[in-house]
Amino acid sequence: MKNVLFLFFLGSSLLILNGCDKDTSSPSQNNDPCESIVCYNGGYCVNGECLCPEGYTGPDCSQQVTPTKIRITKIEVTDFPATDENGAGWDLISGADIYPVILKGSDVVWTSSRYFEDASPSSSYSFTNGLPFDVTSPQDRYSIVLYDFDTIDADDFMGGITFTPYSNTNGFPSTRNLSVGDFSLKLYLNYVW
Q: How many CB atoms lie within 10 A of CB 14?
């Protein structure tokens, strides 16, 4: 009988021990809440959520935020036509005296306060006077027009480029190249949210 009781207690003890839940995790095996989280555009994960850099939003930082304004800090004219539409030089005895103007629709919203005398189409010219200029409606259409300054008669139109300053698919480039025909320029940009 002693053997039966012993076996009974031994079996009961094994059943009780096998029925207990064991904590198999150790303090060094904590789950990382950021393990499966992917953050784009320079965002990073903290406690299972993406922290997005300025200009991006969404659960994974993949959506651009439309800036409240885009600041043009410099305009660099990189090419312009050597002659007018009739094949004549811009000035009678010298090169063109160039300066850019920014229009929104037909309204002039910015004009360079200086011009470069006797400019050559094969050289680049940087305009910073009167800048920065804030584009306060970044999704509207604007134009940049180049003129030849004349003292005797009206300034000559040399070329123009129409563009939309902001696109929700191209990130936030610090420079933007624009070109139409023989007229090319580079815009230097900052973004404000």
A: 10
Domain 32-65 class, CATH top level: mainly beta
CB 71 within 8 A of CB 133: yes
CATH class of 69-192: mainly beta
In tens digits, the chain (193 residues) has pLDDT values of 555 445 455 455 554 545 544 445 555 568 999 999 999 999 999 999 999 999 999 999 999 999 999 999 999 999 999 999 999 989 888 889 999 999 999 999 999 999 999 999 999 999 999 999 999 999 999 999 999 999 888 999 999 999 999 999 989 999 999 999 999 999 999 999 9
Give residue limits of the domains in the chain.
32-65, 69-192
Element at 75 (helix H, strand E): strand 69-79
CB distance 43 to 64 below 8 Å:
no
